[in-house]
Each structure stands twice: as C-alpha cells, then as structure tokens.
Amino acid sequence: MNSLFLIFGLGGQEIFFVFVIVLLLFGGNKIPELMRGLGKGIKEFNSARANVEDEIRKGMEDVDKKKVESGS
Fold first, then answer.
1. How confident is the model at residue 2 (pLDDT cuts 50, 70, 90)?
2. Number of domains in the chain
3. Is residue 67 exposed (0-12), middle (13-18) or buried (19+ Cβ within 10 Å)?
4. Cα–Cα separations (whole angstroms), residue 53 to 28, 47, 49, 60, 62
C-alpha cells in the first residue's frame, strides 16, 4: 500500500488531510456507501478486463489454429 502512496507523492500528513476533507464533505454515514460503490466499480472493471483478456487469448488461439491448418 505504501508504494501506491509513493507514486502520488503522498505522505502521512497529506493522507490524513484528504481523509478529513472526505469526512467533512460526505459525513460519516455516506463513506461506507461510497466505499461499497467504489468496490462494485472495481469489481466490474476487473471483470471487464478479464473478459477482454479472454477474448484476446481466444483470438490469438484462433489465429494460431488457422496458421497450423494452412501449413504456414
């Protein structure tokens, strides 16, 4: 998790400051709802990514089969 924060150049104080602003903007009751929505979005993104990877893999296998069948 530290590597993610290093990418954005965030230290402990910056993370705390962002957390306080999010808490003030959305309130304590809305944060779990926002996190659930974020989790669902990440899950859908990963599912779509896996589907795309499967389609690419199947396409590559089809191309390989056609090469073998044609004798190239």
1. low
2. 1
3. exposed
4. 38, 10, 6, 11, 14
Q: Which sign does the torsion angle of CA 58, 64, 68, 71 carry?
A: positive
- 11-59: per-residue pLDDT in tens? 778 888 888 888 888 887 888 888 899 899 999 999 999 999 999 999 9
CA distance 52 to 72: 27
3-state secondary structure string, the chain?
CHHHHHHHCCCHHHHHHHHHHHHHHHHHHHHHHHHHHHHHHHHHHHHHHHHHHHHHHHHHHHHHHHHHHHCC
What pLDDT, on a 0 to 100 scale, did the predictor assign at position 50?
96
